[in-house]
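User: Design a sequence. Structure:
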């Protein structure tokens, strides 16, 4: 079985974990997961909700697209006051942002 293709895209992401909303930046994204950096901590196993605004220029669409979804934290690494979080995406959908 082959691994998912990851795209090294740095975009703002809004993440809700344990009832708290965090602003972060993606490090990479695939169809089944996302890696992002936070200034606060979340725990492995935490359920998350997220929203990422995908620019039209990246997608080749006439307008930006909002990706909203849910997932689970599967890995956390702390370094230099930031936490790098890897999450599996369990579900997502696209919303137009016109």
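Assistant: Done.
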């Amino acid at each position: 079985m082959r691994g998912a293709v990851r795209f090294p895209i740095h975009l703002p992401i809004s993440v809700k974990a344990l009832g708290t909303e965090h602003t972060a930046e993606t490090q990479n994204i695939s169809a089944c997961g996302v890696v992002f950096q936070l200034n606060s901590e979340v725990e492995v196993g935490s359920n998350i909700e997220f929203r990422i605004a995908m620019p039209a220029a990246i997608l080749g669409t006439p307008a930006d697209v909002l990706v909203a979804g849910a997932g689970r934290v599967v890995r956390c690494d702390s370094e230099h006051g930031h936490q790098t979080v890897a999450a599996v995406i369990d579900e997502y959908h696209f919303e137009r942002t016109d």
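Helices lie at 56-59. The domain at 12-96 is CATH 2.40.10.220 (Thrombin, subunit H).
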